[in-house]
Amino acid sequence: MANLLELRKVTKRFGGLVAVNQVDFTLEPGRIVSIIGPNGAGKTTLFNLITGIYKPDEGEILFEGRSLVGLRPDQVTARGISRTFQNIRLFGNMTVMENILVGMHTRFRASPVDILFQTPRFRGEERELREEALRLIRFVGLRASPDELAKNLPYGEQRKVEIARALAARPKLILLDEPTAGMNPQETAETTRLIRRLRDELGITVILIEHQMRVVMGISERVTVLDYGEKIAEGSPEEVRRNPRVIEAYLGRGVAIGAIA
Amino acid sequence: MIGAKAKVWIERVQNGRSLYLVGVLAYILAALLLMNWLNRPGLRDAVWYPLVSALAFAAFLGSLLLIYYAPLAGLVKGILGLSILLVLLPFLGVRNTFLLEVATQVGIFAAMALGLNIVVGFAGLLDLGYVAFYAVGAYLWAIFGSHQANIAFGTNRFPLEPEWFFLFLFLAVGVAAFTGILLGLPVLRLRGDYLAIVTLAFGEVIRVIVNNLDKPINLTNGPQGIRPVQRPPLFFKPWLNALGIRLDDPTLYALYFYFLVLVVIGFAIWLARRLENSWVGRAWTAIREDELAAQAMGIPLVRMKLAAFATGASFAGAMGMIFAAKQYFINPESFTFMESIGVLVMVIVGGMGSIPGAIVGATVVTILNLQILKGLSLMLNKLRQAGVVIPILNFPLSQWPTQLEPAKYERLVFGILLILMMILRPQGIIPERRHRMELAEALGREEAPELERLPAEEELPPVIPAPEVKPARD
Amino acid sequence: AAPATPTPTAPPAAPAATPTTAPTETPAPAVKGTIKIATQSPLSGGQAALGEGLKNGAQLAIEQLKGPIEALGFKVELVPFDDQAKPDVGVANAKQIVNDPDILAVVGHLNSGVAIPSSETYKDFDLVMVSPANTNPCITDRGYLTVNRVCGRDDVQGAVGAEFAFNELKVKTAFVIHDKTTYGQGVAEFFRKRFEELGGKVLGFEGTEEKANFDPLITAIQAVNPEVIYFGGIYDQAGVFFKQAREKGVNAIFLGPDGMDSSELAKIAGDALVTGGGMYYTSVAAPPTVYEGAKKFIEDYKAKFGKDPEPFSAQAYDATAIVLKAIEEAIKEAGGNKPTRKAVAEKVRATKDFQGITGVITFDERGDPVKAKYFVIKVISGNPEDWGKNQLVKTLELAPPPFTPELKAACGVK
Amino acid sequence: MRKAISQSVLYQALVVPLIQLFVFVAISLVVIGSVVLILAALFNRPVAGGMTLLQFVIRTLPQVAIDGLVIGFLYAMIALGYTMVYGVLQFINFAHSEIFMVGAFIGVELMLALAIPSTAPLMLIMAGILLAVAGGMIGSGLLAVVVERVAYRPLRGAPRLVPLISAIGVSFFLQDAVRAIEGLLNNAFYRNYPSFPVLNQQIPLASFTVAGQPVQMQIQAKVIFIIIASLVMLSGLNFVVNATRLGRAIRAVAQDRPTAALMGVDVDRIIMLTFLIGGALGGATGVLFGVRVGRIDPYVGFIPGIKAFTAAVLGGIGNITGAMLGGIVLGVLEGFAGAYLSQFTGGAFGAEYKDIFAFAILILILMFRPTGLLGEMVGQRA
Amino acid sequence: MAVLELIDVHTYYGHIHALKGISFKVEPGEIVTLIGANGAGKSTTLRTISGLVRARHGRVLLDGEDITHLPPHEIVARGVGHVPEGRRIFPQLTVWENLEMGAYTVKDRREVARRMEFVFTIFPRLKERLHQRGGTLSGGEQQMLAIARALMMRPRILLMDEPSMGLAPVLVESIFEVIRQLNQQGTTILLVEQNAHMALQVAHRGYVLETGRIVLEGTAQELAHNPQVQAAYLGMH
Ligand SMILES: Nc1ncnc2c1ncn2[C@@H]1O[C@H](COP(=O)(O)OP(=O)(O)OP(=O)(O)O)[C@@H](O)[C@H]1O
Ligand SMILES: Nc1ncnc2c1ncn2[C@@H]1O[C@H](COP(=O)(O)OP(=O)(O)OP(=O)(O)O)[C@@H](O)[C@H]1O
Ligand SMILES: [Mg+2]
Ligand SMILES: [Mg+2]
Q1: pTM for the complete prediction?
Q2: To bridge C207 with a disulfide, which of C180, D290, D294, D326 should be the other Cys (CB 3.0-4.6 Å)?
């Protein structure tokens, strides 16, 4: 099957620092894959490259066979890629519902004329999408009221709103940056189930950045490991878990390293 | 149908709403009576007359606010509000055209505040050169609606006939919007205060150009200004005469501009409201909250910002044109940086992002400037000339140093009021719901937000439709 | 609060000003009503000094000259308005003014840009305006009955300056600067026009809103080295310019219109006015050295307000005096009753051979003084104390250009 | 390790900005100067005074450059005050131009009270001016602190535009308050600085002949104060903000107030100090401005204020060296536009377009460097 | 005497009643952990202690002294350090300057340098990034910096809000090791962790929060074996 996403020798530098170095990456549709690696390995930067927030210094990024390089973030979103942010970036002073509606921005078809004269088309669309937003709220398991301001929600709930907002655009590919950070084990388990449902029920392809091994090992079909911007391993969760380089750089040996002397 | 409505009505009355209605009506009546009483010739000499009459008019306009807040049915509010705006105020205005002048200026600034509110309040783009668009609209008509165009283009076809006014009103909207886009294009990448300074610069650029474009070709007549500017036709005069209403032209024009401004404001409110509650308004708010995240949601920053600029600018363009016609004469002094600041003050005093707030802000600031502060200083001036002595200090006011004459310190009082207003009510007079909550929290004051009710779970269709892509499995 | 009835005691006295002129202290008969005279000028903001000078002139005139009207049984009051030098404020004030039936006349404005739209409103309500300061031709060229002025016109004053420079000072090159206001640019343009007509060469014509730093301009002037520099504007800006120019070694003669006529100019520019080629200005107000009336006015003004009059203060005094006189006559004509505004306006227009402190004033059919006197004055000292001793070097009596339909059309009136 | 770091910080804070400044000034003068010369050569034609355009330019170019620099330094000094306050509170202190104006008034009152005769020896005059500057600094600094306490502190945490409006209110208030006070004391609200011939004299710098044209370069004695003062302020401020504990605290407060408090920083005190420093700079500049211009009134702050604010943004708001550069660029551009626009366009466009010219360049620069000359793109973390 | 004691503390955000009467004690030399679901009020408790938000009722005692109404910097001056939730490093300051800010209350330059060397031994990555601006660090690097910054302060009582969030597994282990060591050197620690498993391993005692109230308390051992805790916070079913 054709690749949904393909990165060819992508490099990104910040001054002298090479944050992403000659990374190749391919992804078939309908998969859940993870990217792991030590802090500062370049994982988030990779997401930023795909979504058009950064421009790669070298290399090519193809989505459904077409290049993404040079597109603005909103154009990338319009192509069908949504994301969540590592440091939550909700519209704090908008309600949960409004956040999700903003996520649907690319799907509104009503023209300004429709809006001004409140044509049936505008009203129908508004009603439909609001209903869908409510379904999404239910789907991600949000307990909060849709009319609560986003910034007043606890951390875990905010993460869920972010996911719902990303889903609102009906993406083909969703990029999740540490979706379970700040969640307790129970919530983490919930979110893990949610991610699987994204793929199984909605058919969305998922790339996941995570530090919680329980999540990574539990749902990913393939794991890519970055270190210092380079891909140091790739394979099934089991293969990666046993890779000595990965253990050395990332997983640790399960004992405290004598860092404090 | 009618029966059902009547029933609802009766219920409302029984619910005690009629009490509010009576209260509001009583208030309006009281204000009217006060103004009527003040109209007696004998009172004009009273020392307190200037201030009290200014306050009386403010109180009368305040009834609109009272109506807005009263828990009455929308229809009742509408009837009351419209009857004040369309009947009572014009009626008072015919007796005292100054009131019409104040109301018209309030209207002009209210429409501008509404426009700026879209840019600053909705989209969060600080525009310090807003008056530029006002100037564009004003000069557009001033040039073609006067003999100035003859000088500039060497013909003698101008001024255009009064009838052209209405066509140009649309043109002014278009040209101002276009100018907004022109300004917007180069500044898209700028954020926050960088944008502010560029808009400030743009405002100054327009003013300086207008002030200097009397050479090499004389387009604007420079600081000399353009006059007389054509006014729209009094097409309805025969009809009024037929109705037995005979008014002189100045009064008719005063009324005319008043109604014209009302129409434009009505249009502006309608536009702003509709946009606010649509994907357009939400996109603007999202940009205001977090540009990067908004972009990641698929919002094209550039286009949406341009839309905000253009919409805001178009209101100013229309108002500039009406201003030019109303004034007969325009010159660059009406389009200074302080004017931009003035409109910004109105938006924020009223409540950023709030449509009724923008209108109330414009009203408060304009009335304060044109009437209340003036009334205060006229009153003190009278006291001084009447040789009143301050009781306890035994200080004759006539010896009050001329350096401290109140008329000179209107701006000082205005400055103090601005500071106090911001400290006591930073969210503005009628805050937008969203901003209000944000502030209540930031300043640790409590204010319960009114949340809309959710549809109950059962009302919702259950499944999410799955898109075409099927999951692939190894 | 105290009851608002006016106290029947003596009107507030102008402490030092009363002794010689019109005896005001006659016992007032029963008050028939109030007659108010409004002033409109900027009382706040950057031009407040001039605006205040205007108001003070009017105030002094009312205090000194209201006697005859009070003798007829009316209280006379001054109502000062602050137009903030903004057209929209001026117009709003005008609407308020016309809606107060007690106001029978307006003295104002400072800025032509405010006067023109405001006077449209006065015209609609037959309210007479006498301007002490608006020199723009279109003020009167519109031909309104209600609009008059006691000052000269830009087109004449600029030309007077040019003729003086070319014929008397015998200079052939000039550099013209103006302040980008209706007034300053107006005179400057008429100066240039006349100077070139006479055969002189204008080396540069620059407008500037700058108030502090004239370096670039001065460097450019130095390079072309003109014999005279004409500054169309007001002393506060010109003074700084003159000072900086002399400091940088510009030796040209300075020349300006009546906006220069203030001892403040000497305070700012000091010796720059008498070094190099020295400094001359044209004026429509007689210098105090020539007219007793002017001298006394300056003394009274100083006594009351504690400072020298500003440019246009004397004109405001005269404008108010004319208005008071007209009202007095109109009252008499109305049989001792309050006159109509129209009657007052007509009386004002009929002013003939009025002996003012700035000269003798007779209005022509459009409200300009016929044969206004124009004076050319030489500054003799950099010391502000000596401003009153400035030397009159030339007096011209000039009539404004005849009132033709073309002039009217140029102001857009059909 | 520690030593290396602190040395490099010192170097960064004191030496680098000065070098940056000099290099920048030199480059921009050379660039702008040659552009003007080339244009003049291209469009050479006779102009007024019996010269050709090129001759006119050659004669005046060095002097125009010097004058532009001087006014640039003035803008730069005011811009520093804006930048200080912007740096910590992220808001445009519109009242800064009035703080500056009050400084100018304190200075003039002190100078007049000292009544130094205009022919006094240079040392005495300089001492007088220094005293006036000190007075202006103290007065304006304290005023800024009071303004912060009264009009801004109650608004902490409110949306950004709220203190902006309050600042406009303060601005109006101060203008008229000074007018009232001066009016009562002196019966006039404008004041003239005493004038000293020694300071007014032009010091010739150079005089030579280029292409047959006599070229004069001179500088007025009193503007030397301005240049020295601004360089001292730049270095001093750079040092304080970038190399001291106080400066670090200031920047920390600017970025995240609660967290700065968690580090043990007394946020209120730091904000107060910032206003004190910013106000004092404004006051000193006000006095120097007064000495240079001669006449001041309560509205003098407005135009330089806007220019300086523009300069601060042009240089990258919040960046001290940037504010300095912005001021100089603006001043030099204005100087060139003021002197040459008229001659180059045959009188069609005159000096009155100089602001447009300056603003157009501002827009242009911001289009290519959206965060100003020295502003840095804040690392966008997603 | 307890170093830290909360007595019936109520805290509000606007109209939201976040803490509804929290009382607990921390004894000198203890590691105490607060666990609880999202939004339970853990972070709010820490913020109330360090003065970032004000308790509306109740008292916070430090060594018996009432610090409820002191501003944050004075609480810090009394030896309370706080690693805030969400890192909150100064984005425009360099790593070095961020660390210097941590030692803001320390006047002795040599001591500051010594402490800095110490934190570099724990987080060598920070030394590599010394002159990079805080805002451009990766998420985990920022977390390291936030912890390191608090260590620069050498507080007597350290409030840590989710220190392991966003850290790679290797680092999570070393963080807990650091906590243990600090504690052994005499620092009292109040630890908020989602990773309750690890938290209960290092802590002596713990409290369980639910919607602004303490619902359970006990030694770490007891809590770790409590079936409710196991179900809700340890992910055991
Ligand atoms: N704008 C920037 N400027 C300079 N350096 C940057 C910038 N953005 C990222 N970096 C650096 O690039 C490296 C990779 O950062 P990135 O955010 O991609 O890491 P990450 O793998 O997501 O780490 P974490 O797991 O901690 O989130 C880091 O060392 C970071 O400091
Ligand atoms: N700034 C705020 N404004 C309004 N409400 C807030 C704010 N901060 C927290 N809250 C509310 O206070 C309650 C307690 O929040 P707190 O952050 O203390 O929870 P927490 O236990 O730390 O949760 P988490 O595990 O998600 O960090 C929550 O309901 C939250 O929504
Ligand atoms: Mg990351
Ligand atoms: Mg928390």
Answers
A1: 0.87
A2: C180
Residue boundaries of the structural domains of chain A:
1-80+171-261, 92-168
Q: Which residue's C-alpha comes closest to atom 29 of ligand 2?
A: E39
**Encoded tokens for C123:** 């015209």
- Collapsing DSSP to helix, strand or coil, A227 comes out as strand
E197 touches chain D (CB under 8 A): no
Give the 3-state DSSP-derived string for B39-101, with helices as H, strands as E and coil as C: CCHHHHHCCCHHHHHHHHHHHHHHHHHHHHHCCCCHHHHHHHHHHHHHHHHHHHHHHCHHHHH
Q: How confident is the model at residue C25 (pLDDT cuts 50, 70, 90)?
A: very low
Cα–Cα distance between A192 and A213 in angstroms, integer? 11
Which of C123-127, C179-183, D375-379 reaches the highest mean pLDDT?
C123-127
Nearest ligand to the CA of E40 is: 2
Q: pLDDT tens digits, residue range D302-343?
A: 888 888 888 888 888 778 888 888 898 888 888 888 888 888
CA nearest ligand 1 atom 1, residue: D379
- Indicate if ligand 1 lies below 6 Å from the C-beta of A41: yes
Task: Give SS3 for D203.
Answer: strand
How near does any CA of chain A get to the CA of D13, in Å? Answer: 22
Q: Would you say D102 and D144 are in contact if contact means Cβ atoms under 8 Å apart?
A: no
- Cα dihedral sign for E67, E71, E72, E74? negative
Instruction: Tally the residues of chain D.
Output: 382
A-B contacts (CB, under 8 Å): 148
- Which residues of chain B have a CB within 8 Å of the CB of C117? 227, 327-329
Of D56, D202, D352, nearest to C248 by CB-CB distance is D202
**E to D contact (≥3 Cβ pairs closer than 8 Å):** yes
Atom 6, ligand 1: which residue's CA is nearest? E136
Domain positions in chain B are: 1-38+46-95, 99-335
Q: How far is B281 from chain A (nearest CA, A)?
A: 10
Beta-carbon contacts of residue C196 (< 8 Å; ≥ 6 apart): C202
**Which ligand is nearest the CA of E136, by number?**
1
CB atoms within 10 A of CB D118: 13
Average pLDDT, chain B: 82
Q: Is the pLDDT of residue B104 over 90?
A: yes
Question: How many whole angstroms from E43 Cα to the centroid of ligand 2?
Answer: 7
Residues of A in contact with E125 (CB under 8 A): 39-40
Q: Where are the domains of chain D?
A: 2-380
How are beta strands A66-67 and A58-63 bridged, if at all? antiparallel
**pLDDT tens figures, E54-101:** 999 999 999 999 999 999 999 999 999 999 987 789 988 899 999 999
State the complex-level ipTM.
0.85
Size of interface B-C (CB pairs under 8 A): 139
CB B211 within 8 A of CB B332: yes
pLDDT in tens, A82-138: 999 988 899 988 999 999 999 999 988 888 888 888 888 899 999 999 999 999 999
Does the beta carbon of D382 lie under 8 angstroms from any beta carbon of chain A? yes
The dotted CATH code for A1-80+171-261 is 3.40.50.300
Identify the residues whose C-beta falls under 6 Å from ligand 2: A 152-156, 182; B 441; E 13, 16, 18, 36, 38-44, 85
Residue nearest to atom 6 of ligand 2 (CA): A152
Rounded to an integer, what distance in angstroms lies between the CA atom of residue C270 and that of residue C254? 13
The pLDDT tens digits of the residues spanning B239-293 come to 888 888 888 888 899 999 999 999 999 999 999 999 998 999 999 999 988 888 9
Q: According to CATH, what is the number of the domain D2-380?
A: 1.10.3470
Which residues, at least 6 apart from E120, have a Cβ–Cβ distance to it below 8 Å?
E126, E127
Subunits in contact with chain B (3 or more CB pairs closer than 8 Å): A, C, D, E
Q: Is pLDDT larger for residue B361 or for residue B382?
A: B361
